[in-house]
Amino acid sequence: MVKFSNKTLDDWNELANKELKNKVSNGEQDLSWESEEGIQIKTLYTKDDLEGLEHLNTMPGFPPFVRGPKATMYSGRPWTIRQYAGFSTAKESNAFYRKALKGGQKGLSIAFDLATHRGYDSDHPRVIGDVGKAGVAIDSVEDMKVLFNEIPLDQMSVSMTMNGAVLPILASYIVAAEEQGVAMELLSGTIQNDILKEFLVRNTYIYPPESSMKIISDIIEFTSKKMPKFNSISISGYHMQEAGANQVQELAFTMADGLEYVKTAINNGLKVDDFAPRLSFFFAIGMNFFMEVSKLRAARFLWAKKMKQIFDPQNLKSLTLRTHCQTSGVSLTEKDAYNNIVRTTVEAMAAVMGGTQSLHTNSFDEAVALPTEMSSRIARNTQLILQNETSISRTVDPLAGSYYVESLTNSLIVHAEKLIDEILELGGMTKAIENGYPNKLIEESAIRKQAKIDSEEEIIVGVNKFINESEKEFDILEIDNTEVRREQISSITKIKNNRDEEKCKIVLKSLTRAAKEKKGNLLELSIAAARERATIGEISYALEKVFGRYQENLNITQGVYKKNFSDNIKIDDIKESINKFTKEKGRKPKMLVAKLGQDGHDRGAKVIASSFSDLGFDTEITKLFLTPEELIEEANNIKPDVVGISSHAAAHMTLVTDFMNLSKVNKKNYIVICGGVIPKKDINKLKNAGVAEIFGPGTNIINACYKILNLIKYGNKSNI
């Protein structure tokens, strides 16, 4: 037997120092780095790093479930391949779903358009640009029946990403199944129903927090009694990471949201073991591979620990965190987009190594538009290859015992638990959101990230380094928004003409009365309304009469971008140019940053507003959900040099064009720029409409600032 001498960490440091050519005194110290989460990451981990870790020596299937919620994990049953999809009409989406299911997809995850999310029917004047664009338009039970035509709902697990209009959507789904011959107790799947996350980052809310929590409680109560196979809520960290949260923030705030929902349900008379086993979670999986693996392991530990500490359930399933994951949308790049296939594969592997129960893999073209059938197939096959060709699924928790992974899991537990406890001390997540604490942390994290990318401290291949100079365009999915809306309005008219109007009015009045008097289960009453063919918008408005419609004012975070920008020469140079402008004009250059339509994704708008403010611009940001008419009014009041419109949900051609036309009518010479997810084919159309400049995903903010300053200085008003 060959024997090798045992070496120590001191021996390694000595050798590392030699390899570094004696430029440092200690290899370990100089090669280590700090993650976005504030965790010190060492270059080398040893068994010494496992000393005293409380989560070690556990088994999968047993509390605290670090190694997985099931004993056999994927060796017994592989994770569910659940692709997120929906676009245009219910008929178009149904055809897409059936093809995907034939291609190996195992479950459905429904994407609804923004009009539906916000509780508006397709004929509402506020949603002209949003119908059918970023998801499928659903206005009634009849649409829902078409959506699931020839898809047996007693055999299919269906996940629905819906939070604002959660009552009418879930009610319509239940009635559609009922009329398909499937009783509600046979339905399996998940309704997201996570409104706290909407107030925190995504903004597709309808009602104020207190009223929204009442809705959630009623849904949990109804489903726990009558839908035993259905998950009443999917507590989502995904959108937090998409909004800029680091993994500690995503983990802590998601756990805190979950604890808040449990507390709410118990306060409304439910017993923890009656509903907690059906709670599920949803996480984003980004490009920091080992951090994401460890995050899922830490999440299971923290949920079991906090549930036991606070609520002491007797059913072990109440301690079990089950999760769906989705590869990161924000890591997708418009530039050199085929690189996204690799990114998605890496992220998918991290989700699987971390022990997810179901997974959605993003398509490479989703940085630009909704996925095509071809790109969706590649994304789906990524999972099929992992399941069938790699043998990954044959071993439970294959990274267990790794010095690095176990240490990182513990670091995430420690850091996240500290943040969870801070939230609990504030009175829980609802109170914390009301005072803006978690919102502020996420916004600062997003700005820090952008500063690191812009200064090339963080490399994004094909975006800020290794740029492809001969990139070719690829086909994208185009939605004729005007035609979709016409079809939806025709369908709404038909439904209203054929229903018993008196019965419909009675059930809607019952719903309003229940909201006012705080009596009765709102989901049960919504089901009754859906049976009478009340529309999504009508059911939503019946509650809005009592609850009102919530509107949040956006704030600008200052000082973070310039503080975290590592190239001081670039920062100083642009600030000098802006200072020169200020001296010449007697004022700062002024920018109004705005969102149009029902798109609540505000990360881009906030990052732009905050960074430009740091660089020396006088920057203001509008409220969300503006119409072009409302934006004109805002601009007339503020009188900016530049109006910057952020677009994320494909409504830009309708809404920006309308704004430009209104500008011409009002004889306003605002320089208009657009940013966000705008396909290349639309750039010339927008410029022909009068837009001065388009800034797509991956735009360097310093470079954009120079361009915009020159537009202001030299009076380029384009075609306005």
What can you tell me about this protein's structure?
The termini are far apart. Helices cover 49% and strands 9% of the residues. It folds into 2 domains: 73-435, TIM Barrel; 560-714, Rossmann fold (3-Layer(aba) Sandwich), CATH 3.40.50. The protein has a 9-stranded parallel beta sheet. The longest helix is centred in the middle third of the chain and has 23 residues, at 289-311. The protein is built from 29 helices and 16 strands. With 720 residues, it is of the alpha/beta class. A hairpin with a 5-residue loop joins strand 1 and strand 2.
Q: Judging by the overall fold, what is the CATH architecture of the largest domain? A: Alpha-Beta Barrel
What is the CA-atom radius of gyration, in angstroms?
26 Å
> If strands are numbered along the chain, what order do they take across the biggest sheet?
7-6-5-4-3-11-10-9-8
Number of strands: 16
N-end to C-end Cα span: 83 Å
Shape assignment: globular
Tally the structural domains.
2
Q: CATH top level of the largest domain?
A: Alpha Beta
Let me know the average pLDDT.
93
- Figure out the total of helices: 29
The unreliable regions are none
What do we call the CATH homologous superfamily of the largest domain?
Methylmalonyl-CoA mutase
Summarize the structure.
The chain is of the alpha/beta class and 720 residues long.
